[in-house]
Amino acid sequence: MLDGARVLVLNQTYEPIHICNARRAIRMVLLGKAVSIEDDGLLVRSESFQFRLPAVIRLLRFVHIPRTGDIPFSKKNIWRRDNYTCQYCGSMDAVLTVDHVIPRSRGGLSSWENVLCCCRACNARKGDRLPHEAGMTPLRPPRKPRFFHPEAMGPRLNDAVRQHWSKYLRPFEPSR
């Protein structure tokens, strides 16, 4: 239960900066590094105390988060960049993989500009062909991200989590 629950971490200025599991959030609160701002109503009990499971915590000290610089190239960051969505069919419910637009067998590199998020079915359909050879077109061309929107820090959020987090994320939502 504690490792599966996600908690939004706010900087001292109420800016969303991270998503962590509930175990880590409780540890930060008990060590005096953060305070619980919202809880989801569940109780965590031990022999000596009971504690409401936090949904949102705020750090007591300001943490400088650089907004520029290199974002590490990793599978997790590719999924974040592509919003956990298959870039060929738009599916958000499928098991995700990473696809090389120009296959490695044809000299394609593992780089931000050549890799995108893809469901297993689309990855198998494309194989080691170029997208146009397979009759597929990426929804967006892959590119190197400059920063991540706070809501992209974790996997897709369910409605209950969104309800607790929405007022903290709303000021940071991108304009549509």
What are the main properties of this structure?
single chain; 176 residues; alpha+beta; DNA Binding (I), subunit A; 2 domains; four-stranded mixed β-sheet; two-stranded antiparallel sheet; 6 strands; 24% strand; elongated; disordered C terminus; HNH_5; nuclease; endonuclease activity; NA-targeting_endonuclease; hydrolase
Question: How is this structure best described in words?
Answer:
The two termini are 35 Å apart. Helices cover 19% and strands 24% of the residues. It has 176 residues and is of the alpha+beta class. It has 2 domains: 6-66 and 158-172, no CATH class; 75-126, DNA Binding (I), subunit A (Orthogonal Bundle), CATH 1.10.30.50. It has helices spanning 22-30, 75-81, 120-126, 159-169, and strands at residues 6-10, 16-21, 34-45, 50-59, 96-100, 115-119. It is elongated and about 60 Å long. β1 and β2 (16-21) form a beta hairpin. GO terms for molecular function: endonuclease activity. Keywords: Endonuclease, Hydrolase, Nuclease. InterPro entries: HNH_5, HNH_nuc, NA-targeting_endonuclease.
